[in-house]
Amino acid sequence: MYDQGVRIGLGTDGPMSGNTLSTIDEFNQVAKVHKLVNHDRAAMPPLKVIDMATMGAAKALHMEEKIGSLEVGKLADMIVIDTKAPNMVPIYNPYSALVYSANSGNVRHAIIDGKLVMQDRQILTVDEEQIRQEALAFTDIVRKSVLESGEEIR
C-alpha cells in the first residue's frame, strides 16, 4: 500500500504489542512483521521505516508542509540518539541502526518546535518525579478496584 501512495505513518497513541509507548520500538516491529508476513527479508527496508515515521506520518496527517522533515519554515521537532551506547555499536548503516538497534533509552536530547525539552535524558519542562508518583498512585487505585471486583489478574 505504501508503495502505491497510500499515506501511512508510524506513531503511537497507546501501548503496542510490546507494551510500550515508543515509536522507536515500533520501527523494529514494523520492519520484522513485514519481513515475516511477506517471507522476504527485503520487504521493509530501514529507510522506508524511517520515512514512514517522519514524512509518512506528516503526510498521513496532511501536515507535510509543516512537519516531517527538517526544512526552513517547518516546525523543528527532532531527537538526538546516543550512537555510542553499547546496543548501537558498531554502526554500518544509520537507518538500520535506528530500526534494528535503537530503543527509547538511546534518546539523549529532544527538541520540539525548536525548543530543547530534554537534555542529557533529563526532561526540562515537567517534574518527572511528580508525574511518576501520580502514575503510581493511580496504579494502586486501579489495582484495588480490580481486586475488589473479583476479576482474576493474569
UniProtKB/TrEMBL annotation:
Top-tier EC class: hydrolase
Keywords of this entry: Hydrolase
Enzyme Commission number: 3.8.1.8
One protein family per Pfam: Amidohydro_1
Keyword Repeat among record annotations: no
Residues annotated as domain Amidohydrolase-related: 3-117
A GO term, aspect molecular function: hydrolase activity, acting on carbon-nitrogen (but not peptide) bonds
The keyword Cell wall biogenesis/degradation belongs to this UniProt entry's keyword annotation: no
Segments traversing the membrane: none
Family of this protein: Belongs to the metallo-dependent hydrolases superfamily. ATZ/TRZ family.
Record PANTHER family: AMIDOHYDROLASE-RELATED DOMAIN-CONTAINING PROTEIN (PTHR43794:SF11), AMINOHYDROLASE SSNA-RELATED (PTHR43794)
Name by which UniProt lists this protein: Cytosine deaminase
Source organism of the structure: Vibrio cholerae
